[in-house]
Amino acid sequence: TKLFAPILAFTCDEIWQSMPHRAEEDARNVILNEMNKPFAEYDLGDMVSWGTMTLLRDGVNAALESARNEKKIGKSLEAHITIVTREEKPPVDLSDLKEHFGEQWWADFFIVSGVDFVTDPALYDQAAETPLNGVRVIVSEARGEKCERCWKHDTGVGSDSAHPALCPRCAAVVRALPIEE
């Protein structure tokens, strides 16, 4: 309530009047109280990592838009992204982030069907630039067929005989659902 009070003053004041309060809070009005202190759990390393990932996503989105304009892809889920660096240790080190989150998470983060991380000087020269120094992007057509549930393209679509139109991940989820008859 305190956070929204400057924007939604009357609404927050009504909420404040009807909610319980801590001893140190002034129950008369939300505006008469100080803002909460920021959480100590967030450290600078996390913020730097998210800043790096956001810059990388900006570069990926620009490359996806360029591929859309060139009619290489339609929707972003029809794309496979290759993150290319020229050397093993680029100026912006993605190795910790890459290992920490995993390939599937990166595909979800970029809203594409697949992501690869490669170090290749020849590919680097052909790839689209990103806001990150030493990191570039290649957009290619996604591999495999389109899953009817998640719409991602996957080479494993059709591998489950009970769910031939689903990727292995979606087939496992559907199998785990309770069956209603």
3D structure, described in words:
The structure is a single chain. With 181 residues, the chain is of the alpha+beta class. The protein has three domains: 1-37, no CATH class; 44-143, Class I aminoacyl-tRNA synthetases (RS) (hypothetical protein PF0899 fold), CATH 3.30.2320; 144-181, no CATH class. Helices cover 36% and strands 14% of the residues. It is built from six helices and six strands. Strands 2-1-4-3 form a four-stranded mixed sheet. β3 and β4 (135-141) form a beta hairpin. The protein is extended and about 65 Å long. 22% of the residues are buried.
Sum this structure up briefly.
This protein has 6 helices and 6 strands; from the N terminus they run ααβααβαββββα. With 181 residues, it is α+β, with helices and mostly antiparallel strands.
Average pLDDT value? 85
- Give the C-level CATH assignment of the largest domain: Alpha Beta
* Strand content range: 5-15%
Encode the helix/strand succession as letters.
HHEHHEHEEEEH
Number of domains: 3
Task: Describe the SSE topology.
Elements: H1 9-18, H2 44-69, E1 79-85, H3 95-101, H4 103-110, E2 114-119, H5 121-126, E3 128-129, E4 135-141, E5 145-146, E6 153-154, H6 168-176
Parallel strand pairs: 1-2
Antiparallel strand pairs: 1-4, 3-4, 5-6
